[in-house]
Write a structure and sequence with these properties.
With about 270 residues, this protein is of the alpha+beta class. About 20% of the residues lie in helices and about 40% in strands. The chain folds into 2 domains: about 100 residues, Sandwich (Immunoglobulin-like); about 140 residues, C8orf32 fold (Roll), CATH 3.10.620. A hairpin with a 6-residue loop joins strand 9 and strand 10. The protein is globular and about 55 Å long.
């Protein structure tokens, strides 16, 4: 399947910004199961491309002239296979064990551990047990936008019983790590089945051992990630894989507007 993706982020500021630097993880990973057909990221300023420790292409954009707005536009087409390949992506040089360490956003507590044990039962977990955990998390953390933000932890989202895809992915990652199963956060895009369905998305990879490798699970849609999912970045949690992160000097109050569309179709041959 070909996914045509357009992602526009506009920051506006009450006062001039004298300096800003943004880390953009907005280019699909070179993972098995997906291929860039065309892709363009447009942002003002000087740009430096680099690969981070998790194998993500990171474009560091620096703007040193005064500005009252910052517009970042992504437009491209990615070809996605029927499912994410089971092998460790070639671009990821880290051992799966690197994804066992807790982070501030995925620190485990008794409630997360109990949820994991109740659904996984044994180690290593089977694919069926993981899907049972996915269903359990979906029931425990209802998808409700506007209740949480990027600072909420997995434990807080589980306690609230509410959150968005980021929170559900963090809960899955934290549950798996609590029973010794490596798991990592994934940011990307999702081609929904109806108008208004989330397009900028998050899910998680879970390690099933050297023979099976990674499996990619979407709690929000209770499914294995497949042809409707385009992977941008992976990491220990949201902070490692956020599509846009930055700092600035000046500007005062900031407003942000985001528009993301993901449509499917075939690429026309010239």
């Amino acid at each position: 399947m070909h996914l045509h993706i357009r992602h526009e982020t506009l920051y506006t500021y009450a006062e001039p910004v004298n300096y800003s630097i943004q880390a953009l993880k907005l280019t699909p990973r070179a993972d098995p199961g997906q291929r860039i057909v065309t892709w363009r990221v447009t942002a003002p300023g000087e740009r430096l491309d680099q690969i981070d420790p998790y194998g993500n292409l990171t474009q560091v954009v620096t703007l040193e002239t005064p500005h009252r707005e910052l517009r970042i536009v992504v437009d491209g087409i990615a070809e996605i296979g029927d499912g994410v390949g089971p092998a460790v992506p070639e671009s990821d040089s880290l051992s799966p064990l690197a994804y066992l360490a807790p982070t501030a956003l995925t620190r485990q507590n008794l409630a997360l551990h109990d949820l994991a044990v109740r659904h996984l039962g044994r180690h290593p977990p089977s694919a069926a047990a993981l899907m049972d955990l996915v269903a359990g998390i979906r029931d425990a953390v209802n998808y409700v936008p506007g209740v949480t933000d990027v600072k909420h932890t997995a434990a807080e989202a589980l306690d609230l019983g509410l959150g968005v895809c980021q929170d559900q992915a963090h809960v899955l990652v934290a549950c798996c790590r609590s029973v010794g199963v490596p798991a990592r956060y994934v940011s990307g895009y999702f081609q929904g089945g109806h108008v208004g369905e989330v397009a900028s998305h998050a899910w998680a990879d879970v390690w099933l051992g050297t023979e099976l490798g990674w499996t990619s699970l979407d709690v929000t849609h209770a499914e294995v990630a497949g042809a409707r999912h385009c992977r941008l970045a992976v990491g220990r949690d949201y902070l490692d894989a956020a599509p846009v992160r930055g700092v600035r000097r000046g500007g005062g109050h900031e407003s942000m507007a985001v528009m993301v569309t993901v449509t499917s179709g075939q690429v026309q041959q010239q």
